[in-house]
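Re-run with default settings, no changes from the original entry. Doing this only to confirm the output is reproducible before filing.
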Amino acid sequence: MLRHHRECSPGRRHGVLHPGRRSERLRLFLTRPLRGPIPTTALLESFAMSPSTIPSRLPVVVIGAGPIGLAAAAHLIERGLEPLVLEAGPAAGAAVREWAHVRLFSTWGEVVDPAAEKLLAPTGWTRPDAATYPSGGDWTQQYLQPLADVLGERVRFGARVTGVSRAGRDRIVDADRAAQPFVVHVHHADGREERLFARAVIDASGTWTTPSPAGGSGLPALGERTEADRITYRVPDLKDPAVRARYAGKRTAVIGSGASAFTALAYLADLAQADDGAGTKAVWVLRRGISGSTFGGGSADQLPARGALGQAAKAAVDHGYADAVTGFRTGAIERDLDGRLVLVAEDGRRLDAVDEVVVLTGFRPDLSFLSEIRLGLDERLQAPVELAPLIDPNQHSCGTVYPHGHRELAHPEQDIYLVGMKSYGRAPTFLAMTGYEQVRSVAAAIDGDTASADRVELTLPDTGVCGGAGLFDAPEDQAAGGCCVAPAPQLIQLGVGAPAAPEETAAGGCCGS
């Protein structure tokens, strides 16, 4: 048999890069500017030569180009670190754009990150009036998109992260784990798949894509998926003619007790009073009872617009545009003979039929693409274990959340951080200013500036609410003072000519403040 002899080039031995050539390739890699994707082959060969040097040359991957992800990039740049922001959507603030019609209860002065503002300043950008309240659309158009434009090629759109791990190490391998870079798998909108490497990962992907279901046990109610065409998990945009027609003159169930539910109730009340909205009615479905804290902190809230939002929802109920059904945990959603939807409680009670259902029961984090990462998460909230006690509604008697940074956000896996809304897991009350402080601290920690990372540079406003959501669901014999208890099921019609609601507590909360 004839054998073809192949001469090896001076720099190769049987297809393997000669150490001399490999060292030169390493030198070129380390000195090249970080522009565009890093070649995988070059990275792996170079990293194999010097595991202690390569990570410092890799970018910090930031997942999500929302307010917190873009702020993280700004803080990294301020420290001379290179970010690479991967956004699944087609534009900056893709999730925020989906609630562009909703006005924030934080002012412009509270939703612009300081480092981002410095980055924008050379472009001539000026912050809108700090005392005014932007809508989601204002926030994206006037701040988030300009910020993404300044970041330029450091932000990639249509890039969905599908997995994060350590290079060459799955979840169970200990050996030399911390010395390996992170490997990030990305699926692009055009179908391409890519593998990137990072010195650290900041997950600011939020929770918008994983809303909690209507079911009172945390699972989708029976029939919830089947009736999906009549159910939404977003505050309806009643300025959109098609959406407005869907709800005008209809009976709509609103499930939830937070700011989003307040907003939906206020919007539906406005529609009921409009010329084209005659007959519009909301049914507010609550798992707990009506108490002094049901409508938020009111005038005691240090964010006045947040307090006013709760009062607007209260007005909707008081004036008869909504009926409140308390102590109702949805177990099933059925369709009656007329094609309308019937909510069935876990105890078998049935509500009168409705035309539409708006489910606003909160959000939960998508942890699927982090399955190979060693996370330390609280078993209830799915928030970092050190952060969870600060935000747990089962533990908090009042709404204040202490500022926190990299230490509370740390995991057993070094140099990966969940920030922003995702860091709160299933807990509510997240504020943009909280996320900005988080990423300031995290960027400092990645940079090795522990003193700055540990420094607290934020004071959060009090909600003016006493008694966390979890306390209201406690059995009667466990509730402090006997006031924060799960109520007996009842329909409460608050409004002109309607019977007065039971007086449970004075406004400001049921736990004595």
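Residues 1-54, 464-513 have pLDDT under 50 and may be disordered. Residues 136-151 form the longest helix (16 residues).
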